[in-house]
Amino acid sequence: MSVQDTIKNQVTSHKVVLYMKGSPDFPQCGFSANAVNILRACGVDNPFTVNVLEEPEIRQGIKQYANWPTIPQLYVNGEFVGGSDIMTEMFQSGELKQMLG
Q1: Among 3, 36, 53, 69, which residue is least crowded by beta carbons within 10 Å?
Q2: pLDDT, tens digit (0-9, with 9 covering 90-100), for 52-69
Q3: DSSP state, residue 28
Q4: CA distance 41 to 55
Q5: Could you give the C-alpha distances from 26 to 20, 29, 35, 96, in angstroms and in order?
Q6: Residues 6 or more apart from 57 whose CB is under 8 A from it?
Q7: What is the pLDDT of residue 101?
């Protein structure tokens, strides 16, 4: 299975997927911490997460998969939502909570 196939399988077999640096309990960058805090504020306590620091092939592959250069990356129902900045905007507008509801 290729890296792209692995990523596709992850984002399509879980409702909420977050590619991040670190883990939800120990994020390794401020943007990943922000993403986890936003998901928790929206009522998502256990998203499927992938620590890209432990999986370098996923770290590179996910950037190509969504054509998005930065991490974290959020997927909901198999669709790419965005990174930390987009998540913040969507959270503030209420759009993200509605999407996750």
Answers
A1: 69
A2: 999 999 999 999 999 999
A3: S
A4: 27
A5: 11, 9, 12, 23
A6: 3
A7: 85
DSSP bridge partners of 26: 23
Above 90 in pLDDT, residue 96? yes
| Predicted confidence (pLDDT) per residue in 30-48, tens digit | 999 999 999 999 999 899 9
CA distance 74 to 87: 8
Residue 88's nearest CA partner among 55, 39, 43 is 39
Question: According to the model, what pLDDT value does residue 1 have?
Answer: 86
Q: Could you tell me the residue ranges of all domains in the chain?
A: 3-100
Task: Please give the span between the terminal C-alpha atoms of the chain, in angstroms, as a whole number.
Answer: 32
Q: Is the CATH code 1.10.3720.10 the one for domain 3-100?
A: no
